[in-house]
From TrEMBL:
It catalyses: glutaryl-CoA + oxidized [electron-transfer flavoprotein] + 2 H(+) = (2E)-butenoyl-CoA + reduced [electron-transfer flavoprotein] + CO2. Residues 129-239 form the Acyl-CoA oxidase/dehydrogenase middle domain. The lineage of its organism: Bacteria, Bacillati, Actinomycetota, Actinomycetes, Micrococcales. This is glutaryl-CoA dehydrogenase (ETF). Signal peptide: none annotated. The keyword Transit peptide applies. Coiled coil: none annotated. Pathway: Amino-acid metabolism; tryptophan metabolism; Amino-acid metabolism; lysine degradation.
Length: 405
């Protein structure tokens, strides 16, 4: 049992779930922890880990078939928990590949698109990215300006995307763009029974090979968070694509939102991994750091901090587990995801910051993980829905009123 598992949550896991936990934890101990301080300091994404993550079955592990793992939601959550105990940026690699790019194809793609791309991404042979947010369209994706037009039997995409994970090293990027109903009809992908007028614009996804002329990506630099990962700007200038590159199913924002919900689910588990690692780091340090003739752990104030943080951690872990069980049972609702993503990330940031105080001045160095985790979690708090967005989702569930605008 983990030092922080005071509620014996591990006893609620199956043998298969415990095996996933131990496998990913061993990978993090062996490959991530010895190197993460340097990678973070150098703002370096260790791409050499991507084939190893694929070998562990971490890409699209929740997807059935197509070379994917077909694991349960709880198993996926446990894997994200252990990976983010290493670093949020490295957990994001798995999220971008699996929860976003692969889920976009699995939920919205044709059978041919699934057969073509999912096995290759699962095996780490192809890296995928997911282009939804824009410089002026973050929490409100309906305000996106990227658009696609059908010209002489080809799609022509123009626009810009921002904060797109892995885009500079990706082989394909799922680009979400506005398409007219008339063009969707001409391409044979407008759903029967949809009565929107021909000039209406609907959000659609496209599989865009990143070597297509007119597609360019540039890494965002001088970040204070997520330094061991890649977030990028994308420019699309008259990008010409075959007509069959459009994702044919689920037009509108329900297409990308289904992917975001998968990512948010993983975050609800993952953020707590960073919190757990922070507590363990602070506890190890405090047990040997002598002040006034005894270790810091012998002082009441230190014990209060550690006790409060561990109780908060265990409560969050119980919520994540309940969320996972509901996901596997098919009873998970949107507000469940928002509650867990909102509160578990918020709690994890506070835990990481409090752990830094136990470490004193040494806590601002990369030798110790809490401040790195706290900085990373500021990004996790913002992406896949800000605190404000998830608060309003929960508020709408409580009141029946949509207060987003």
């Amino acid at each position: 049992m983990s030092t922080t598992d005071l509620f014996n949550i591990a006893s609620m896991f199956t043998e298969q779930e415990l095996q996933v936990r131990d496998t990913v934890a061993e990978f993090v101990d062996r490959r991530v922890r010895p190197n993460i301080a340097r990678w973070y300091d150098d703002a370096h994404l260790p791409t050499e880990l991507i084939p190893e993550m694929a070998e562990l079955g971490l890409f699209g592990m929740h997807i059935e078939g197509y070379g994917c793992g077909g694991r349960s939601a709880v198993e996926y959550g446990i894997a994200m928990h252990e990976m983010e105990a290493g670093d949020s940026g490295l957990r994001t690699v798995i999220s971008v590949q699996g929860s976003l790019a692969m889920t976009a194809i699995a939920k919205n793609g044709s059978e041919e698109q699934k057969q073509t791309w999912l096995p290759k991404i699962a095996a780490g042979e192809v890296i995928g990215a997911f282009g939804l947010t824009e410089p002026t369209a973050g929490s409100d994706p309906s305000a996106m300006t990227t658009h696609a037009k059908l010209v002489d039997g080809q799609w022509v995409l123009n626009g810009a995307k921002r904060w797109i994970g892995l885009a500079t090293i990706a082989n394909i990027t799922i680009i979400w763009a506005k398409v007219s109903v008339a063009d969707a009809k001409a391409a044979g992908v407008h759903p029967d029974g949809d009565t929107r007028p021909d000039d209406a614009m609907v959000v659609r996804g496209f599989i865009v090979p990143t070597d297509t002329p007119g597609f360019s990506a540039e890494a965002i630099e001088q970040k204070l968070s997520m330094r061991a990962s890649l977030q990028c700007d994308i420019s699309l200038e008259n990008v010409e694509l075959p007509v069959d590159t459009i994702l044919p199913h689920n037009p509108g924002l329900r297409g990308p939102f289904a992917c975001l919900n998968e990512a948010r689910y993983g975050i609800a588990w993952g953020a707590l991994g960073a919190a757990r690692d922070s507590i363990e780091s602070a506890l190890d340090y405090a047990s040997t750091r002598m002040q006034f003739g005894k270790p810091l752990t012998a002082y009441q104030l230190t014990q209060k901090k550690l006790a409060d943080m561990t109780i908060a951690l265990n409560k969050g872990q119980l919520m994540a587990l309940q969320l996972g069980r509901a996901n596997d049972a098919g009873t998970m609702d949107l507000h469940h995801i928002s509650m867990a993503k909102l509160d578990n990330v918020r709690v994890s940031i506070e835990i990481a910051r409090e752990c830094r105080t136990i470490l004193g001045g040494n806590g601002i160095t990369a030798e110790y993980s809490p401040l790195r985790h706290a900085n990373n979690l500021e990004s996790v708090r913002t992406y896949e829905g800000t605190d404000e967005v998830h608060t309003l989702i929960v508020g709408q569930k409580l009141t029946g009123e949509a207060a987003f605008s």
